[in-house]
Amino acid sequence: MTFARQSVLARACTLALAVCTPVALVASGSPAQSSTIHAAARGSSGPVSVGLRFVTLNTEAPNTLNQALSDVKKIAATGADIITLQEMASAQRRKAVRAALVDCSGCRYGAWMPSLPVPGSTPILYRKDKFELKDAGTVQVSDATYVGARGAGPSTLNAKYINWVKLREETTGRHFFVLNNHAVPTVQAKNGGPNYSLPKRLALYRKHMSGLKALITQFEARRKPVFVTGDFNVNYRKDSVVRSSLFPYVNMGQVGVQASYKALGQPIHGTHVLPNGDEKRLIDYVMFSSHQAVKPVANRVLFGYNSDHRPLQVDFTLTSVG
User: Fold this and answer.
1) Radius of gyration from C-alpha coordinates of the chain
2) Domain regions of the chain by residue span
3) First to last CA, the chain
4) φ and ψ of 143, to 5 deg
5) Element housing 224 (H / E)
6) Is the pTM of this model over 0.90?
7) pLDDT tens readout for residues 52-93
8) What are the pLDDT digits (tens) for 170-180?
9) Fold annotation for 36-319
10) 72: β partners
């Protein structure tokens, strides 16, 4: 398995499983400049808590530039603190998002958005008035692989990457990690277990999950909260019942990470709408590690977007050291 990592602080690669290869950084936004708020939090007599809102969306590659941009701007208007996106390999799409939300005068967001198309497909945006970007990187968890014509996507699936950032929340002083990824499609059978008729896809999914777990383990060793987001292409409603060792419910549980659906319940509507009208599938996730500083509060599916995926919004409270 090949891993690639680039630090925004030009640090030497420290991930035990990583092999350092260049991944272009398109950094954005200066660190938040308010030090007085953090100083007040440090001097308070007890813990300080703040709200933390995640929204994740697969923007749907076939959508037009205007459709995708409209969806991302609409998410930003919800007051999302952290926005994670998938299917953003188009350079024009990333450029438009940067121009609208990141690089303009008065823009509220910073971003980790690699310039290469495949690593850049899963960018992470964060409110630069609330967070300081401490580190970021991109880890390759699989190579481009021929899987055949059956199933979603091309016959040869692109290499898979996980983008990640380390952020410092200004009010609490807490550092935490956010990981964003897009897993291999067409791996789950109708009964909720693995689709054994497509073994090449299952093998690739296994590699992806192995790489993801290794990265989570590295970050958890630093005793910081870890959030994992993205399109896992596995319906939580069925995975939580069948509990295949290949899929997220079991795999993420092995590294102490759970989906918001487990902690807060399953929304009535799904995050993905199939061509046949089935709209109950929960394949987009915001997950979190067990940490005393993090408490899940609410999750909801958002409506009125152009993508065949619906955004998932999850709220947490983040608490400072007592």
Assistant:
1) 19
2) 36-319
3) 41
4) -95, 165
5) none
6) no
7) 999 999 999 999 999 999 999 999 999 999 999 999 999 999
8) 999 999 999 99
9) Deoxyribonuclease I; Chain A (3.60.10)
10) none
